[in-house]
Amino acid sequence: MKYRGYLVAGVERWREYREQLTALKKKPILFVMLNSTEEADDVGDWLRTKYPEDFCAEKTLVIHTNKTGEITKKDLEPARRLAREVDLSENPSMHSLVC
Prior knowledge:
With 99 residues, the protein is mostly helical. The protein is built from four helices and three strands, in the order αβααβαβ. The protein has a three-stranded parallel sheet with strand order 1-3-2, with helices on both faces. Strand 2 (60-62), helix 4 (73-85) and strand 3 form a beta-alpha-beta unit. It is globular. The two termini are 16 Å apart.
């Protein structure tokens, strides 16, 4: 994995923030932006595999963009839903966003 060192450091920092923000009933989101859709898919899969308790299935959203930076049609509605619901207390699942 090309970005392993950065990702491990990011996850460790994210965990620190998560602990600190729990008392405030806030949750941090790990946001990873990559150069290509292939890299985004690889990093999403790697996070789900390496840290399944934190980033399994619905806890990680991979969003693809086109060459102008616009979210692809297939990923637009999930991204909008996430933006609306990310801070809701009844939405404890989302932890990472990979673009």
